[in-house]
Amino acid sequence: MRIVRRVPDLRSELDAARPRGRVGFVPTLGALHAGHVSLFRLARADCATVVASIFVNPKQFDDSRDFEAYPRQESADCKMAQAAGVDVLFIPGAGEMYPAGHATGVQIAGAALGFEGSRRPGHFAGVVTVCLTLFHMVRPDEAYFGQKDAQQLAVIRQLVRDFSLDLDVKAGPTVREADGVALSSRNVRLSPDERARAPAIPRALRAAVAAHRAGRDPVEAARAGLSGLEIDYVDVADFGGDRTLVVAVRLGPVRLIDNVPLDAPARAGL
Ligand code: AMP
Question: From ligand 1's centre to the CA of 215, what distance in Å?
Answer without folding.
Answer: 31
